[in-house]
Amino acid sequence: MKAQNMKKIISGSPFEGDVLYMEPMVKHTSLKIGGPADIFAVPRDIASLANICSTLKQSGIPVFPLGGGTNVLVKDGGITGAVVCLKSLRRIGVLGRDDAAVYVVVEAGTLLRSFVHYAEENGYSGIEGLAGIPGTVGGAICGNAGAFGCEIKDVLVSVELADLNGRRSVLRAEDVRFGYRTSGITVDQLILKAEMRLKIDKREEVSARVHNYLTTKKEKQPLWEASAGCVFKNPPGTAAGKLIDEAGCKGMRRGDVEVSGLHANFFINRGRASASDFIKLMEEVADRVNRKFGVILEPEIRIVGRNGVD
Ligand SMILES: Cc1cc2nc3c(=O)[nH]c(=O)nc-3n(C[C@H](O)[C@H](O)[C@H](O)COP(=O)(O)OP(=O)(O)OC[C@H]3O[C@@H](n4cnc5c(N)ncnc54)[C@H](O)[C@@H]3O)c2cc1C
Q: Tell me, what CATH number does 286's domain have?
């Protein structure tokens, strides 16, 4: 569909928020890689989100939900259709409490960092291990983010979703079909908000645990570099980073993409890296690991979009 037609469709809809056309995804991903999205929309609130999704669906324009863009590799040709970014939905509120726990509702675009900070400030326990993970609560639920033996599914009570017709539904955590860095949330479901159960604890103890996890994470991972976190999932019983390191891949480079010397499962954009170089480096690393250990590495990052001109 031509850009002009897309503009007409969006401007004729009751959408409130920001909308950009041919927006480079370099600006919206932690890897700073990716061609342009045909449409990049940031709805102001849940009602606007529902409006734009049904407009897009009726016009046959595909929708890709985006949180913080910290777990995606967008290909060089960019994204066909509309990226709907949920970063404006970021309220947190208390629903209720009992003797042991508090029930909070968190909107999907809330930064995980803000949610961890909120829990720390209030002495609520359960998500300390998620400290230092970038991105949003919606993205974390979608990929069941976790670290230090803690996963977001452990505190989730339910999740509220919208389909592309704007219809809303609530799914209990046990029905989300979580796995290791996966969930049963499909591409045509948008996470709007989630109910979480956090244990009531002593503020200073929660804070000490957050501090410890953050310190460890900073020592072991290049958090200040342009990356998407771990590129590959850990195979059963071992760490992908260890295998990549022992296969001699630290420092390997393709164009401006480099295997981190600090943590071999992090690939760093050293400047103007392309997605095609990133994917080629993934293939080379996976091949070396397979030849040395007979282990097939599976991507943890989500690769989306259309190929560019190589
Ligand atoms: C330095 C660094 C360290 C990291 N450390 C960790 C770690 O320790 N543990 C870990 O698990 N991950 C880690 N990550 C990866 C990443 O931060 C997490 O996976 C994070 O939860 C992704 O959230 P996001 O909002 O950025 O998702 P995005 O990258 O925006 O999206 C990821 C996927 O979720 C979907 N999605 C996002 N929001 C929604 C929504 N509201 N509704 C429906 N679908 C949605 C997208 O379509 C996409 O498929 C790290 C990344 C970096 C850069």
A: 3.90.78.10
Residue 239 and residue 157 in contact, taking contact as beta carbons nearer than 8 Å: no
Residue where the block lists tokens 């095609």: 276
Residues 152 and 118 both lie in one domain: yes
On whether the CB atoms of residues 231 and 300 are closer than 8 A, the answer is: yes
Which residue's CA is the nearest one to ligand 1's atom 47? 65
Measured in Å, residue 164 CA sits from the centre of ligand 1 at: 21
Range of the domain at 298: 240-304
Q: How many CB atoms lie within 10 A of CB 229?
A: 22
Tell me the average pLDDT across 131-157: 97
Instruction: Give this prediction's pTM.
Output: 0.96
Distance (Å, whole) CA 100 – CA 162:
31
Instruction: Evaluate whether 132 touches 117 at the Cβ level (below 8 Å).
Output: no
Q: What is the DSSP letter of 40?
A: E
Of 50, 85, 120, which residue is a domain's last?
A: 85
261 lies in the same domain as 293 = yes
**Do 80 and 108 sit in the same domain of this protein?**
no
Residue 166: the pLDDT is 84
Ligand 1 and 305: CB distance under 6 A: no
Residue at 49 is within a domain: yes
The CATH number for 74's domain is 3.30.43.10
> Ligand 1 center to residue 138 CA distance, Å?
8
Q: How far is the CA of 72 from the centre of ligand 1 (A)?
A: 7
- CB of 176 closer than 6 angstroms to any ligand 1 atom: no
8-state DSSP, 233:
P
